[in-house]
Each structure stands twice: as structure tokens, then as C-alpha cells.
């Protein structure tokens, strides 16, 4: 079932990370399942153990189902100095989740991440591929509501 | 079309809402008599004033507006049509008296020469700004060894952190015989507080391609990789477009510019691992492995990617190459100090007014970087220290602000130049807490291969946590220093070797703060929650019960309309009462 994503790339081991990204990005629950690992293993002729080794080494990959939108709040010092703790508190409250958890409606997963390189506009978070900066509690609420609105 | 409007659409601009501004301008232009060419550009470095909109008229008079909100677009453009300028909104202009920002006036822009000026997705824009002229010169007028000599003469040193002379690195790769060599660009920028590579990749991707192609030609490589972190999707998008365009125009691929030189360039994406910025880990990652460092020697120049001779340079280093080839080494090494030539891009973050990117000649005193170019502190609280070089670097205190920025002077303070991140801290920052934060980062990012890095940083983090909780002992300080020494010595790569730096420098310059936490059980900056004490001033308390109601552990008691009291044994120092009190009756000390 993952064939169309896997076969976009030549069957060489150096394409492994690309293939895993492709699978994860196209999965509605943004993760790499056991079946996917099996398929990749057969295609690239590398062991599932190797693939799990790579999957679990890189923080952006997940082997567990996640929400439709991945929120990554930067936990690095430049954002911390400008109040990321307050933003985290707000996110936890308005989503009613802890770090690493997914909301009940399956819309959001809250994660922390290392520097996003937008420190000039700290505090910063990334939702999927979009970056949001100069965050305030009010702004966070609006961003979350906007995304919720778009899903309905 | 006579009028040009440019919107800064790099990640920083987008993060601040540039897309909405762009759309508002687009909508305005559809319904107005104003005729203008709307384009996007990247980051000019003034992240603090994003979103930025520049209006350039037929005579090249330019006005750059800062902090533009979508709802302001109509008024600003209407007024512009009538010749009225919102002076308070203009942060840069070549026609307005006094608007030439100090921030730009004191800069020398080589690496950032095109950033925020050209449309990064337009090859034409790059070509109009001397793009690919250096490549043509290198391929048609210079010998390979001549190119390497020119880079050596320029004095260019690696901008990724270690500061190794670039020309010498190229020489090593050139000297290693072999039919197959690789040229890699390290775009895995991960230092918290550094974002110059992102800006160049997003804002001037062709300059990296040109630098790499010149380098590949010089060392004799026919294949290259740009290893970019997955956290930079916009950079990857711009690179992909740039590579495609360059290939179609004959600047990449087979028979470049009609010569017999071939160079194929690929992008490899990371997946969130800081350690992949280390060159051997990066190569492992390209090969589809866990990104773990390997023992050196052999160095990449002898045995790198798939065992072949490989040269790796950082983004900022490569952005200098075309400029040096075109303008000559002499013009480049005019800038800088004896051992650190040229310019350096610094990323200003933290409690600084003009947060963003700046490029200055090496040798400028730190205080000029922070106060003249950076505009000084963001808040009224005084400067306390600046973390140079991210988690591998160190914290430089106020008394060392006369230090000049070059590789050797910064190393003398115990910090490192690193990638050029400057995280500015004010008096409200607890240095023990900051050291803990940076160490927490390296601890998380340690790949786990070397025992000292894996376990040692963990033990150090436990000690620091203990100290910030008021449970530290004076012995802990010695243990920290001993562990630091061992971790530096016992780690394979730069991550481990430099991980203790933030702790060592804060211990050196802010030792009294550590001692206050240990002996007096006090956090001088009032940051460490476990050491805080919340008390109610009876004279101010009106007995509204707001604090008692929010206290999660029922530590506050008292009758309605009578002063309340906090039971210190029960208090968990969450600060809820402090936030809830409307009468300033609760003090934090």
C-alpha cells in the first residue's frame, strides 16, 4: 500500500530517509507503520532493524500514530528567553494535551523541537511546514482556532 | 512597470505574517489605479521589523516599511499615491534624511550581498547581480590550483564553527588522487540562536550553487550534495528551484558553460538530528545510516562519502567563494584581523532590540556589534552576558565587551566563534539556568556513541538541576569542572568536546551566582522557581480570596475580607497566586 511513495526513489540505501519522509508525510496520521517498514525493507534490501534504527534516531520521525497537524514549539534558549514557557502552557491548556500527546479529535499533536532558526522572531513554533513567530498567548489561540476552522 | 513593491517572504517574514501582507497588497493592486510590480524577496536581516515591504520607484528611490499589518496596506499605499509617506513606519530609505538605519550603516555585506534584495526564485535576478560571473572566470580563465591559491590567499576560514582554512581544506581534497570525489555543502544549521545559513539558502540559493561548483571544479569532484535540515522546508524549496534553473541554463550538469567540466548536485534532507551538522555524522546520514560521527583520521579529504575523497564546507563559507573569485583575494583580506579575514555574519537573538542578521568585518568590538549594530537591549534591564557560538560556545560577561570578534579573541574568553549565534541576556536571566538549558540541549542531542558525552552530560545536567533547586553543594562545582574536562577529552566529535563550554564559562564569570544558589538558597535573578518565596503583604491584602481559589495545593488560608497567609511548607511555588492577585499584595523574592 506504500508502493507509490516508495518507488518514487531508486532502491538504494541512501534514499532511506527520503522514503521515510515521503511515507510519513502522506500518512493521515503522520507516522511510519510496521507494514511500511516491512515494505521499505523489501524494496531497499536492508533489514527492518536498520530501518528502525534510523527511524528512532531522527526526532522528526514517529513510529506511533499522530495528529493531522504537528505542532513543534521551539524549546531552545533564544525562544525560552522570550517566553516560550508561557506559550507552552497556553498550548497545553487550549489543546488539553501534554507534550507528545494528540488531541482527542486527532487534529493536533504537541511536540517540542530544537531551534527552528527563526530566532529573530522568538518565540516560534512550526505547524506542519508553516512557521509562526512573535508568539503571544492571544496569537496562539487565533492560530489554533483558524486551523480548526479550516478542518470543518 | 515603473513601480516595484517587494515583500520579505523568508521564514522570518512569513512567521511574522508576510503572506497576509502580500495578499493584501495583491488585492489592493487589483482594485486600484496604482500600477506596480509585486515581487517577493527574502530576509534583509531586520527580523525584528518583519513583515517588511519595500517600495521602489522609477528613479530607484526606495522606502522600506517595517511592521506592516495587512489592514494597514490600503492606507499606506493610498497615501503613497498622494505623495504622503508614513515616516514612523519607514525603517530604511535612500531618500529620507536620517532613515539610513545604523543597523545597515555599520555593516559590510559579502555573504548577505543579495539577501533581501533579489527574488531568490529568479535566476535572472541573480545574473543581474554578477551571478555566475565568478564561475565563468574560474572555468575559463583559471587553473584549478590557481583557484585554490586564491581562496588560500583570501584567508577565508570555515564559518561552520571550527575555523579551518578553506583553501587548505580544498588543497587536501585536490591532493588526494581518485577518479571520484564529492563536494558537500553542510546546510544542517542547528545551533540554537544561529540562522544565517537559513537566510542565505532561502535568500540567495544560487550563491551556494556557484560556490560549490567552483569548489568542485577546483578539487576535481563531479558530484555534490547539499545536506539541509528538514526544519527548513522553504530553503529546500528554493534550492530545488535554483538547481533546476541552473541546470537548464548550463551552470550545472554536463559540460558546464561549454567546458568539459561536469557537476551534478543533489539535495539531501535531514530528519531532525543536531549531531548531523558534524561532518562525519552528516556523511553517515547521506548514506542512509544513523547520523553518528566516525573516528578521524581518515579525514573526509582522504576517505569521506562512500569512502571517496570528499570536501565539506558550510553554507556561509561557500557564500563567500564567488565573491572572492570575482573580486580577488586582496580585496577580501582587506577586511578583518591578522588571522581572521573577511566578514562574519552574526545572528542576534535574545533580549536585543534589533534581533536578526548582521554582517560585519571581523575585528569589530563586541560592544559595537551589540549596541551600534544591534541597537542595544530590548528592555530597560541592563546587559548581563552574551552566549557566543550556541551550545558549543560560552557566555561572555559585560566586562569583556571590548573583546573583538575574531576566531582567536573569542576563543580566549572560553567561548567560540562557532556559527556566529549571539544570544543576548539581561539581568533578569539566571546564568545557572541558562547553562542548564544549553546543556539540556546537548544532552538531548548527544548521539550516544561516546560514553562521556552520553552519560557525562546527563550527570552534569542532574547536578545543575540540583543546584537550581537549591539542593546543590560546593563540592558539586568541582565535580562539574572535573566532568567537563573528561567529557571534552573523551568525546569523538565537536558536540561532546564542546558541550561543557556553557557551564565552564558561566562558572568562570558568574561563579557567585552558583554560590548564591548553593549557600544562600537564593536565585539572584529570581528565575529558579524552587528558590522563590511567595509572601502576602497583610497591609495590601483585601481578603478577596482570589489567591486561595487558584492555589492548586490549598496552601493559602484566611477569612474573607481579612489578610490571607501562605503556608510555606505546602507552597509549590507555581506562581498562580502571584498572577491572580489584583492588589500587588503578593511578593516574589
Q: Explain this structure to me?
A:
The complex is a heterodimer of chains A (152) and B (589). In chain A, 45% of the residues lie in helices and 12% in strands. Chain A is of the alpha+beta class and 152 residues long. Chain A folds into 2 domains: 3-57, no CATH class; 69-151, 3-Layer(aba) Sandwich (Glutaredoxin). The two termini of chain A are 28 Å apart. Chain B is an alpha/beta fold. Chain B folds into 5 domains: 3-100, Glutaredoxin (3-Layer(aba) Sandwich), CATH 3.40.30; 123-332, NADH-ubiquinone oxidoreductase 51kDa subunit (Rossmann fold), CATH 3.40.50; 343-426, Ubiquitin-like (UB roll) (Roll); 431-518, Up-down Bundle (de novo design (two linked rop proteins)); 532-588, Alpha-Beta Plaits (2-Layer Sandwich). Chain B is built from 24 helices and 18 strands. In chain B, the strands form 5 sheets. In chain B, strands 2-1-3-4-5 form a 5-stranded mixed sheet. Chain B is globular, with a radius of gyration of 27 Å.
What is this structure's SSE topology?
The complex is a heterodimer of chains A (about 150) and B (about 600).
Chain A: H1 3-6, H2 16-26, H3 34-44, H4 48-57, E1 69-74, H5 77-81, H6 84-95, E2 108-113, E3 125-127, E4 130-132, H7 137-151
Parallel strand pairs in A: 1-2
Antiparallel strand pairs in A: 1-3, 3-4
Chain B: E1 3-8, H1 11-15, H2 18-30, E2 36-41, E3 53-56, E4 62-65, H3 73-81, E5 90-93, H4 102-105, H5 123-128, H6 133-141, H7 144-154, H8 166-175, E6 182-187, H9 196-203, H10 205-219, E7 223-228, H11 233-248, E8 264-269, H12 279-286, E9 310-314, H13 315-327, H14 329-332, E10 343-350, E11 356-361, H15 366-373, E12 383-388, E13 394-397, H16 407-413, E14 421-426, H17 431-445, H18 451-468, H19 474-489, H20 494-498, H21 501-509, H22 511-518, E15 534-536, H23 546-550, E16 556-557, E17 565-566, H24 576-580, E18 586-588
Parallel strand pairs in B: 1-2, 6-7, 6-9, 7-8, 10-14
Antiparallel strand pairs in B: 1-3, 3-4, 4-5, 10-11, 12-13, 12-14, 15-18, 16-17
Amino acid at each position: 500500500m506504500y508502493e507509490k511513495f516508495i518507488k518514487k526513489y531508486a532502491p538504494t540505501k541512501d534514499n532511506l530517509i527520503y522514503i521515510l519522509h515521503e511515507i510519513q508525510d502522506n500518512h493521515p496520521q503522520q507516522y511510519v507503520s510496521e507494514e511500511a517498514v516491512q515494505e521499505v525493507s523489501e524494496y531497499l534490501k536492508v533489514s527492518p532493524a536498520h530501518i528502525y534504527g534510523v527511524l528512532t534516531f531522527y526526532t522528526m520521525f514517529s513510529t506511533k500514530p499522530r495528529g493531522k497537524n504537528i505542532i513543534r514549539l521551539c524549546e531552545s534558549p533564544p525562544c525560552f528567553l522570550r517566553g516560550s514557557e508561557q506559550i507552552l502552557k497556553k498550548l497545553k491548556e487550549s489543546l488539553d494535551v501534554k507534550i507528545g500527546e494528540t488531541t482527542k479529535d486527532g487534529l493536533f499533536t504537541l511536540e517540542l523541537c530544537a531551534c527552528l532558526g527563526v530566532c529573530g522572531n522568538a518565540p516560534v513554533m512550526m505547524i506542519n511546514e508553516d512557521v509562526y513567530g512573535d508568539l503571544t498567548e492571544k496569537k496562539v489561540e487565533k492560530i489554533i482556532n483558524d486551523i480548526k476552522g479550516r478542518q470543518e | 512597470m515603473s513601480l516595484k513593491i517587494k515583500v520579505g517572504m523568508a521564514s522570518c517574514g512569513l512567521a511574522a505574517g508576510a503572506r497576509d501582507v502580500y495578499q493584501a497588497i495583491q488585492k489592493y493592486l487589483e482594485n486600484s489605479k496604482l500600477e506596480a510590480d509585486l515581487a517577493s524577496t527574502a530576509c534583509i536581516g531586520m527580523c525584528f521589523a518583519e513583515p517588511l515591504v519595500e517600495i521602489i520607484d522609477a528613479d530607484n528611490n526606495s522606502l522600506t516599511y517595517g511592521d506592516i499589518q495587512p489592514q494597514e496596506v490600503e492606507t499606506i499605499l493610498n497615501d503613497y499615491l498622494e505623495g504622503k509617506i508614513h515616516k514612523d513606519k519607514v525603517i530604511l530609505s535612500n531618500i529620507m534624511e536620517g532613515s539610513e538605519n545604523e543597523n545597515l550603516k555599520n555593516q559590510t555585506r559579502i555573504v548577505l550581498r543579495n539577501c533581501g534584495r533579489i527574488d531568490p526564485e529568479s535566476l535572472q535576478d541573480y545574473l543581474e547581480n554578477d551571478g555566475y560571473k565568478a564561475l565563468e572566470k574560474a572555468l575559463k580563465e583559471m587553473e584549478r590550483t590557481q583557484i585554490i591559491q586564491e581562496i588560500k590567499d583570501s584567508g577565508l576560514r570555515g564559518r561552520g564553527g571550527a575555523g579551518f582554512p578553506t583553501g587548505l581544506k580544498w588543497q587536501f581534497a585536490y591532493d588526494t588522487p581518485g577518479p571520484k570525489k564529492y563536494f558537500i555543502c553542510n546546510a544542517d544549521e542547528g545551533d540554537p540562536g544561529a540562522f544565517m545559513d537559513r537566510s542565505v539558502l532561502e535568500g540567495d540559493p544560487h550563491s551556494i550553487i556557484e560556490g560549490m561548483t567552483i569548489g568542485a571544479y577546483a578539487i576535481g569532484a563531479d558530484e555534490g550534495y547539499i545536506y539541509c535540515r528538514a526544519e527548513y522546508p522553504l530553503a529546500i524549496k528554493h534550492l530545488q528551484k535554483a538547481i533546476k534553473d541552473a541546470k537548464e541554463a548550463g551552470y550545472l550538469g554536463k559540460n558546464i558553460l561549454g567546458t568539459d567540466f561536469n557537476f551534478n548536485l543533489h539535495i539531501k534532507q535531514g530528519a531532525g538530528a543536531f549531531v548531523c551538522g558534524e561532518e562525519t555524522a552528516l556523511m553517515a546520514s547521506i548514506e542512509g545510516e544513523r547520523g553518528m560521527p566516525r573516528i578521524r583520521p581518515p579525514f573526509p579529504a582522504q576517505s569521506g562519502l562512500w569512502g571517496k575523497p570528499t570536501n565539506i564546507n558550510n553554507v556561509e563559507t561557500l557564500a563567500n567563494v564567488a565573491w572572492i573569485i570575482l573580486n580577488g583575494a586582496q580585496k577580501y583580506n582587506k577586511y578583518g584581523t591578522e588571522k581572521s579575514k573577511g566578514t562574519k555574519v552574526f545572528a542576534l537573538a535574545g533580549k536585543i532590540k534589533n534581533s536578526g542578521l548582521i554582517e560585519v568585518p571581523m575585528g569589530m568590538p563586541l560592544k559595537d556589534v551589540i549596541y551600534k549594530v544591534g541597537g542595544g537591549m530590548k528592555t530597560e534591564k541592563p546587559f548581563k552576558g552574551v552566549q557566543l557560538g550556541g551550545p558549543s560556545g560560552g557566555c561572555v560577561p559585560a566586562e569583556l565587551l571590548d573583546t573583538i570578534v575574531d576566531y582567536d579573541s573569542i576563543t580566549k574568553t572560553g567561548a567560540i566563534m562557532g556559527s556566529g549565534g549571539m544570544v543576548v541576556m539581561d539581568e533578569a536571566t539566571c546564568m545557572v539556568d541558562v547553562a542548564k538549558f544549553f546543556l539540556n540541549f546537548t544532552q538531548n542531542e548527544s548521539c550516544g556513541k561516546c560514553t562521556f558525552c552520553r552519560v557525562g552530560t546527563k550527570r552534569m545536567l542532574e547536578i545543575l538541576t540540583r543546584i537550581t533547586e537549591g539542593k546543590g553543594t560546593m563540592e558539586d562545582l568541582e565535580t562539574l569542572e572535573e566532568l567537563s574536562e573528561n567529557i571534552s577529552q573523551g568525546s569523538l566529535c565537536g558536540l561532546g568536546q564542546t558541550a561543557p563550554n556553557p557551564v565552564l564559562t558561566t562558572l568562570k564569570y558568574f561563579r557567585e551566582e552558583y554560590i548564591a544558589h548553593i549557600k544562600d538558597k537564593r536565585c539572584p535573578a529570581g528565575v529558579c522557581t524552587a528558590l522563590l518565596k511567595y509572601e502576602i503583604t497583610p497591609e495590601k491584602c483585601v481578603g478577596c480570596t482570589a489567591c486561595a481559589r487558584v492555589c492548586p495545593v490549598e496552601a493559602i488560608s484566611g477569612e474573607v475580607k481579612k489578610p490571607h497567609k501562605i503556608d510555606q511548607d505546602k507552597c509549590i511555588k507555581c506562581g498562580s497566586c502571584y498572577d491572580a492577585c489584583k492588589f500587588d499584595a503578593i511578593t516574589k523574592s
